[in-house]
Specification:
The structure is a single chain. The protein has one domain: Jelly Rolls, CATH 2.60.120. It is mainly β. The protein has 2 helices and 10 strands, in the order ββββββββαββα.
């Protein structure tokens, strides 16, 4: 199977220049997996184009973490950061969409530049999902999916 990549953002619709504009930005996703290991704090980093708007975060716990007291997932700008999501229980199997605070919703409007543009590459934002266990787990797997739309502000985020 072939793959094609391009810089985007992808816009779709039929009326671009009339008062009845119906053009919208495509929502994209990136997903990462978690599997328990010997550490009590696991972090995984995803990169999205800088200035992206995070539209949702979905957590699928396939096998519940069996740590002694808790296994909590957070999503932020740093390991164990809570800028985008916090308090997701990884000890319960199933699909969860976090309840976002006003501050988290504000942060989700535009991701910061964490990796500067260079050598023809666009600037990126790091989004770090972390599971912190209290007590060593012997089981636990899951996925975190970040849903986002790229910014259309080329002057700010995509400069060389």
């Amino acid at each position: 199977m072939s793959r094609t990549t391009f810089s985007g953002p992808v816009k779709s619709g039929t009326n671009r220049y009339t008062p009845y504009k119906n053009v919208g930005t495509t929502v994209l996703t990136q997903q990462t997996a978690f599997t328990f290991d010997a550490t009590l704090v696991q972090s995984v980093t995803l990169y999205v184009p800088a200035g992206s708007k995070i539209t949702n975060i979905v957590v699928d716990v396939i096998t519940a973490y069996d740590s002694a007291t808790s296994a909590t997932l957070t999503v932020g700008k740093t390991a164990a950061g809570t800028e985008y999501a916090s308090g997701v229980n990884a000890k319960t199997a199933g699909r969860t969409t976090p309840t976002f605070t006003a501050s988290q919703l504000t942060n989700m409007q535009s991701t910061p530049i964490d990796v500067a543009a260079s050598n023809g590459q666009q600037a990126s934002s790091a989004i770090i999902a972390t599971i912190t266990s209290v007590g060593q787990p012997t089981a636990g797997t899951g996925f975190v999916t970040i849903e986002y739309a790229q910014s259309d502000d080329r002057a700010t985020y995509n400069t060389q």
